[in-house]
């Protein structure tokens, strides 16, 4: 498996920057995600394709277009993304990236699934006013490190 290279990252962060973002969102990032932000502050991964094993369409895959970064008032800012998807993804999930079509890559930050990475399919989203569930979410990795080290693959046409 080739090493994942991250390009177009945000500017370098400090622990203080991460704590300020956590406070703004009322969350605590898992250690592997904190480490990722300190090293990369989001960006575009290469390779960026991943399989969605539990998707109803066999062999379904997608592209991880961006990991969100901490850059205030930017469309790729994690705080902005979390505000945009509040009430649309389960409460314990944090949107940490997106595909080219607006589907989300979510990190579970609490509960029994803590640390796992899910693909959130906006085409199957709960109706407005309904509580979001995992009905439109598909497990893609057991952790961020698993996603980066084992799940992102080269596109071969």
Provide the spatial order of strands within the biggest beta sheet: 5-6-7-8-9
Number of domains: 1
Stretches where pLDDT is under 50 for at least 5 consecutive residues are none
CATH architecture: 3-Layer(aba) Sandwich
Instruction: Compute the number of strand runs.
Output: 9
Question: What is CATH's topology name?
Answer: SMI1/KNR4-like
**What class, by secondary structure content?**
alpha+beta
Separation, N- and C-terminal Cα atoms:
17 Å
Main CATH class: Alpha Beta
3D architecture notes:
The structure is a single chain. The chain is of the alpha+beta class and 157 residues long. It has a single domain, classed as SMI1/KNR4-like. Helix content is 24%, strand content 22%. It has helices at residues 15-25, 31-40, 78-85, 144-151, and strands at 5-7, 44-46, 49-51, 61-63, 66-67, 93-98, 104-108, 117-120, 137-141. The strands form three sheets. A five-stranded antiparallel beta sheet has the order 5-6-7-8-9. The protein has a two-stranded antiparallel sheet with strand order 1-2. A hairpin with a 5-residue loop joins strand 6 and strand 7. The longest helix has 11 residues, at 15-25. It is globular.
Search tags:
157 residues; alpha+beta; 4 helices; 22% strand; two-stranded antiparallel ribbon; globular; SMI1/KNR4-like; 5-stranded antiparallel β-sheet; 9 strands
């Amino acid at each position: 498996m080739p090493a994942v290279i991250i390009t177009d990252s945000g500017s370098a962060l400090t622990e203080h920057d991460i704590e300020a973002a956590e406070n703004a969102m009322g969350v605590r990032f898992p250690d592997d995600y904190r480490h990722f932000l300190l090293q990369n502050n989001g960006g575009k991964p290469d390779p960026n394709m991943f399989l969605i094993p539990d998707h109803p369409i066999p062999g379904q895959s997608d592209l991880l277009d961006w990991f969100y970064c901490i850059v205030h008032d930017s469309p790729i800012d994690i705080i902005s993304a979390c505000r945009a998807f509040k009430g649309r993804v389960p409460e314990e999930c944090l949107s940490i990236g997106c595909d080219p079509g607006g589907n989300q890559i979510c990190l579970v930050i609490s509960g029994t699934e803590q640390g796992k990475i899910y693909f959130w399919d906006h085409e199957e989203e709960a109706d407005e006013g309904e509580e979001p569930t995992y009905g439109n979410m598909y497990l893609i990795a057991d952790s961020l490190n698993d996603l980066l080290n084992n799940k992102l693959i080269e596109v071969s046409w």
